[in-house]
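Input for the complex:
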Amino acid sequence: MSLPGFLQMGRFSVFIWAAYGFAGLMVFLNIVQPLIQNRRVWERLRRNRDDDEEEMHEEAE
Amino acid sequence: MTGGVLGAMRAVFVRELLVFWRRSTEIMAGLVFFLIVTTLFPLAIGPERRELMLVAPGVLWVAALLATTLSLNHLFASDYQDGSLEQLLMSPYPLSAMVLAKIAAHWVLTGLPLALLSPLLAIQMALPTKAIGTLVGSLLMGTPTLTLIGAIPAALTLGVRGGGVLVSLLVLPLYTPVLIFGAEAVAASAGQGFASVAHLSLLGAFLALALSFAPWASSAALRVSLD
Amino acid sequence: MGKFSRLACVTRLIKLIHKYGAPKRFYELAGTLTPWFASLTTLLFVSGLYLGLYWAPPDYQQGNAYRIMFVHVPNAWMSMMAYVAMALFAATGYIWNVRLADILAKATAPLGASFTLTALVTGSLWGKPMWGTYWVWDARLTSELVLFFLYVGYMALQASIDDPRRAAHASAILAIVGVVNVPIIHYSVYWWHTLHQPASLTLTSQPKIYITMLIPLIIMSLGFMFFYLTMLCVRTRSEILWRERRTDWVRKLVESRS
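Predicted:
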């Protein structure tokens, strides 16, 4: 990438950066949310394994 | 067999009319809502006849649509609670025919009075006299479509928490075509656009489509909800 | 009669396969596919952004603003494709009682809703420099908005029913009704729009697409498609684990991972 190219990108209007920023934010949220959910599922599965005797206690999601 | 089905349908229809009639406050709720909303609008917009005329088709149609949505909650709810829906499910006749009879009865007591009351409110909203016929016609064709489509979410949300709000969330996007052409037909015959015949015939097409599709879909939904 | 019973046989077979084989096997398959999909998505996004923001020259009519197209159009496409995919999954799950299809439909909904929201927001951000307004009641914008409400309704219905099977079947009916309605809604709004809007504001007569625009557009579209597939795998995997928590294979998996 050359310097003039970068300068050209600096001249993009705020609308372009807002649009790309929003799309990027949505992609980010779409990645983070399922990963958190996945971790939560694993935690619950481990907890269920630990108190396997009273296993019917899981609350529905 | 066909006679049997028709007989059963008539029995369901008459029973529904009687049951709904005994709970007449619920029928009145939709009508009163329609009346109040269309009375509030001139108060908010101002008594200028020209401005009122401009928004009249939209206001009347939106008010009719919301009134229909309000009444959807009573379509299956009480029969679900007292168990008579399960009886209907076990009857030897096709469930979709029974559901159609129920919807028809519901419309006769909610949509039909609404359409018949609308000329009064049209005068209130300064709608030109030549458009009143189109208004009644569009409501006569539009409200049964709304009730038919609305029966599907009403059946899906039976016994679900927050059912009432959920029904309006599910049903309003599905109502957009009917609203567009209903209001457009009235606006057209009030003299701000094209001939209203095209819009009315599209409303008729929606009604035909809903008649063939909705009873079947809402009986499938009832089966899921009562499973 | 013979044809009918063969159909019933096939249906039963599909039922058997999916009831007992699929969730576990799909869990493993998705597990191996996810890193591949993820790296492909990254590659496509990086090269698409480079080509779209840096390599492609400014348009002589729109200047640089047309570059919003590279995020707007793929999201709009994906919002519709995801809805059709969701309805197909839901219908498969409803008709043949395939649990995996139920899960896939449920996992598609939030992704589709986010594609729709992104398409709406980037579209209005594109509209402001182009037509001088954030929002017009254009056919495409309006039907995209209605599509968003359909997604939200689907997710609300899913969330309000506790029993997973009933939730899947009820929302499947809603998705099928919605997919019948989407074209009707679109054409209604389109006709309404052509009757209403002055001809000066036609959004259909967009400037000609040049090859320098087309290449980044295709790459970004593929990027969003693989992004969908990646996140579908991730979401489906955790949903499968939770729903199958009482089965032996999940117990063994948890055992080996802790």
